[in-house]
Amino acid sequence: MDIIDGFLNKITMYRLVLYYLAALVGIAAVFGAIGWLPYGPVDLLFEALFFLVACWAANGILAGIFKAHPNSESAYITALILTLIISPQPPMSSNYIIFLIVAAGTAMGVKYIVALNKKHIFNPAAFAVAASALLSGPAASWWVGGNIPLMAFVIVGGFLVIRKIQRFDLALSFLAAAFIGDILTHPADGALITIQKAMLHTPLFFFASIMITEPLTTPPTRPWRIEYGALVGLLFSPAIHFGPYYSTPELALLAGNIFSYAVSPKETHVLTLKGTREFDDTITDFSFTTGKNAPLAFAPGQYLEWTLAHERNDGRGNRRYFTIASSPTEREVHLGVKFYEPSSSFKKRLRAMQPGDTIVAGHLAGDFTLPRDPSEKLAFIAGGIGITPFRSMAKYMVDTAAQGGPARNAVLLYSNRTPEGIAYADVFDEAAEKIAMRTVYAFTGRRDAPPSPRAHRQRRTPTARTQNPAYGIFHEGRITADLIRQEVPDWRERTFYVSGTRAMTGGIERILADMGVPRTRIKIDFFPGFA
């Protein structure tokens, strides 16, 4: 799993999906050439190339008309999905070519035309094929799911996608509901035969990994995601019908999209850079204004998808998911970013932004939020730039307490290689002074005594302790079970929040589990595209 995680950490979610779909088309072409699939490789590759060009062109034209930031990645992904669900035909028929043009145009058009407050409502590929069928045109065959030779590749690639975006809850709720729906509507076949048919002769696994997991049309929090998956799964069965209209995979997904839109935040924001603050050579805080009087509405710890248009996109595209580092009580929106070398084209453009430049942020989501019960004791554990959600939470707790709200009981363990990597120490100092939130700084990169996070403090050794809450506690080494027991003596009474890289959060989760912390009291920060 370490090798798989290493690969997944180096690639964005969108790029992984794009490569996966392209691989399926290529493998299908090979299988078609040797007679394992009923489609010739020339017909299949023609359809794929046609959709890629048509979707790219339509996306660019519509983006220009609507003055939006075009995203070629999403256009290519939609093109390949259309290829895998519409049966290829010999490119001699004018009706077939017209259908391909209309399908590509409809898929791209729905992103711009059928959108409210610049938020997507429907899955583009599903909308395009559903519109065609409702208008008495060709229907989608979903051939990618009904071919046994492709099944292993669909399942393996789909697993990688789900693991990357950590949406097992969504996929499993969909699969469970789909099986239940099929069993209830096919009682004469028996449960085992019904499940076998669904697995081998429907696009079940492709749907679970690609279609329902699209972030732009997925609910923002886990409870809603589970309900969304269950709804689409129940409607997925072809025996479900409303009067003369029978359900199809695309109609099931569109119904789920409407549900998702109803329970999701609706706004997309154009944010203007106000200024930046560098903590060291690798970590920068970006401060944005919203262009409106009211602060941005979100819960501390949630994240946004950030889109930054720039030329010569590299393989990681122009979209990223970043946690909001600011509190809902602040008018400015803060974004904390760590830069690595060599940086992606996105981060190079982000770092080069000047005051007055804009970035698009939307699709608010995330369950890594404070508990509703303010009396619940909390322990925050952060690694590196994983500190951003805790900056948001700490500032929120300070501000709400100042306004007469309850003072939450929290302690922070913050791991960095060196003291220079510390970010937002001023906020944690304020939290220590005003709500008695203790911070333990753990340094893993060098053995000499770390300096204080703030220049005006006098130098202290890693083992120095103080009763003054304005000072942090310094520790040399990693965050271990012994350190947690030492610095959080009431750890059995606390709920743990852990944020950082996949490797770091996995390691801390194992430590806490070995200590006896129940899984229900361990919350891990994760969002699509982390790392």
Description:
With 531 residues, the chain is an alpha/beta fold. It folds into three domains: 2-263, no CATH class; 268-365, Elongation Factor Tu (Ef-tu), domain 3 (Beta Barrel); 378-524, Rossmann fold. The chain is 45% helix and 15% strand. The protein is built from 17 helices and 16 strands. Strand 12, helix 15 and strand 13 form a beta-alpha-beta unit. The longest helix has 25 residues, at 41-65.
Q: What is the structure about, briefly put?
A:
The protein is of the alpha/beta class. The chain has helices at about 1-10, 15-35, 40-65, 70-85, 95-110, 125-135, 150-165, 170-185, 190-200, 205-210, 220-235, 250-265, 345-350, 390-400, 425-435, 480-485, 500-515; strands at about 115, 120, 240, 245, 270-280, 285-290, 305, 320-325, 335-340, 360-365, 380-385, 410-415, 440-445, 475, 495-500, 520-525.
Describe the secondary structure blueprint for this structure:
Layout: H1 2-9, H2 13-33, H3 41-65, H4 72-85, H5 94-112, E1 115-116, E2 119-120, H6 124-134, H7 148-165, H8 168-185, H9 191-201, H10 204-211, H11 222-236, E3 241-242, E4 245-246, H12 249-263, E5 268-278, E6 283-289, E7 303-307, E8 319-323, E9 333-338, H13 345-351, E10 358-365, E11 378-383, H14 388-402, E12 410-416, H15 425-435, E13 438-443, E14 473-476, H16 481-487, E15 495-499, H17 502-515, E16 522-524
Parallel strand pairs: 11-12, 11-15, 12-13, 13-14, 15-16
Antiparallel strand pairs: 1-2, 3-4, 5-6, 5-10, 6-9, 7-8, 7-10
Helix pairs in contact: 2-3, 2-4, 2-7, 3-4, 3-5, 4-5, 5-6, 6-12, 7-10, 8-10, 8-11, 11-12, 14-15
